[in-house]
């Protein structure tokens, strides 16, 4: 195990990314546990930080951690030193705190426990997934990979095609497929070929309401996507807490 860790993580230059990801996950789970205890008004758990009656959201602390970790990571020597790992972990903590209130920052309103607040959890899950792919050694569009076969023009064409397919998948409302497709090209191709999801920019501009494609997209979304979406929402509620009803 130690030999694998040294070879794949330390010598592979991925120690900082590992520390970032572990700290990110730990900070997200901790802050969600904290806000759920505050929501339940648990007497044994410290409440919100409210100096002078002003509620300071944890996104503020997150920005401080990100600045400390980001700037610190720029000045510490080496990529596998203890200080490099520590600054990456600090940056991971800050990123988790900021993304956990992503919806609040986007709406400039305290939507944390509303349906709109689910967006924060979704963004966190995406960040964890993409960081995990990077940790496994995958690179978006294959950038930085060595010994890629083919002529330069062939490589450039493949990268542009992969990027185009990923963008089409995103426009079709397939967020996960489009983003992960940047790392795994065939997945982006599948997302680009299949029908768009109802309500997506692609469907809005290219599917006429009542047309065959529009109707087929509606049926497919109810049959395939709805069960997955219900499972994901239950999982998000289990991890992050259920939004307030009727808001």
From TrEMBL:
Keywords for this protein? Membrane, Transmembrane, Transmembrane helix
Q: Does the keyword Nucleotidyltransferase apply?
A: no
**Organism, as annotated:** Actinomadura rugatobispora
State if Transmembrane is listed as a keyword: yes
**Recorded superkingdom:** Bacteria
| Stretches that traverse the bilayer | 15-35, 56-76, 82-107, 119-141, 153-171, 178-196
Instruction: Write down what this protein is called.
Output: Integral membrane protein
């Amino acid at each position: 195990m130690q030999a694998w860790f040294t070879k794949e993580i330390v010598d592979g230059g991925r120690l900082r990314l590992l520390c970032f990801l572990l700290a990110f996950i730990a900070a997200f789970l901790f802050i969600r546990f904290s806000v759920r205890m505050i929501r339940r008004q648990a007497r044994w758990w410290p409440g919100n930080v409210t100096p002078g009656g002003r509620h300071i959201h944890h996104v503020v602390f997150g920005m401080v951690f990100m600045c400390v970790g980001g700037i610190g990571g720029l000045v510490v020597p080496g990529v596998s030193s203890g200080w490099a790992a520590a600054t990456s972990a600090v940056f991971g903590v800050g990123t988790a705190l900021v993304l956990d209130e992503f919806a609040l920052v986007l709406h400039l309103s305290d939507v944390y426990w509303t349906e709109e607040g689910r967006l924060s959890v979704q963004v966190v899950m995406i960040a964890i997934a993409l960081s995990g792919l990077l940790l496994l050694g995958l690179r978006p569009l294959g950038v930085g990979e060595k010994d890629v076969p083919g002529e330069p023009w062939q490589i450039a064409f493949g990268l542009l095609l992969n990027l185009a397919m990923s963008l089409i998948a995103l426009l079709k409302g397939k967020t996960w497929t489009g983003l992960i497709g940047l790392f795994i090209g065939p997945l982006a191709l599948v997302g680009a070929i299949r029908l768009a999801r109802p309500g997506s920019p692609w469907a809005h501009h290219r599917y006429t309401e009542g047309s065959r494609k529009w109707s087929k997209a509606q049926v497919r979304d109810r049959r395939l996507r709805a069960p997955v979406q219900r499972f994901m929402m239950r999982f998000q509620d289990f991890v992050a807490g259920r939004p307030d009803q009727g808001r």
